[in-house]
């Protein structure tokens, strides 16, 4: 079983992999592939963000006191910006320059946010909870990701319990929409998963 830090970092690596796949598609001039990988990237970012807001940030507030509340509030604000970026992205056309610029701006924000989590937030939390508690939180985080929305909804509250309820109501609608959206093909995902085995973004070096 993974610890909470390991589970969060694994998600971060997936985001970076899907972004790389998008950039390669853009270099090839393959607009359809750009759209597929952007959809996969969006799916991962939104599930990850809401999973953190429901499971991880309350733990930071519970175990890290006032400092934990400050960190959690800061992280929620950054999530709101990314959700707004994703919401705007859905109105733009894949292949367009504005579309690409927004993705790059969003990913720059995410790198900063993710690095802060890996360098400061999660190590601080892991230091005050047991390894078993960390693994239990990781399992809860993974289960929650299966139930949350898959598209950016900046209007959804970013604190439980309101967020939990609204998120669960939005999730079925999103999944119906996803059935009609284009995601990476099976072979493309297999190749990406193989690359993921060798990825290890160094958050400290990235700063």
Automatic annotation (TrEMBL):
Ranges where the Hemerythrin-like domain occurs: 4-124
Pfam families per the UniProt record, alphabetical: Hemerythrin (PF01814)
InterPro entries for this protein: Hemerythrin-like
Residue segments, region Disordered: 136-162, 188-207
Signal peptide, first to last residue: none
PANTHER family: HHE DOMAIN PROTEIN (AFU_ORTHOLOGUE AFUA_4G00730) (PTHR35585:SF1)
Protein name stated in the entry: Hemerythrin-like domain-containing protein
Native species: Dichomitus squalens
């Amino acid at each position: 079983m993974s610890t909470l830090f390991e589970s969060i970092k694994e998600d971060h690596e997936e985001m970076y992999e899907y972004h790389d796949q998008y950039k390669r598609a853009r270099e090839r001039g393959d607009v359809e592939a750009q759209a597929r990988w952007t959809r996969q990237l969006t799916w991962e970012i939104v599930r990850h963000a809401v999973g953190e807001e429901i499971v991880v940030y309350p733990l930071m507030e519970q175990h890290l006191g006032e400092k934990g509340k400050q960190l959690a509030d800061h992280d929620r604000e950054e999530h709101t910006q990314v959700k707004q970026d994703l919401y705007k992205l859905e109105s733009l056309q894949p292949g367009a320059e504005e579309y690409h610029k927004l993705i790059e701006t969003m990913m720059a924000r995410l790198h900063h946010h993710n690095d802060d989590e890996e360098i400061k937030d999660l190590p601080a939390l892991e230091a005050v909870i047991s390894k078993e508690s960390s693994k239990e939180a990781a399992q809860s985080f993974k289960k929650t990701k299966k139930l949350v929305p898959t598209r950016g909804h900046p209007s959804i509250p970013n604190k439980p319990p309101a967020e939990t309820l609204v998120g669960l109501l939005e999730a079925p609608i999103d999944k119906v929409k996803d059935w009609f959206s284009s995601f990476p093909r099976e072979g493309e995902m297999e190749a990406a998963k193989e690359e993921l085995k060798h990825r290890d973004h160094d958050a400290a070096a990235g700063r």
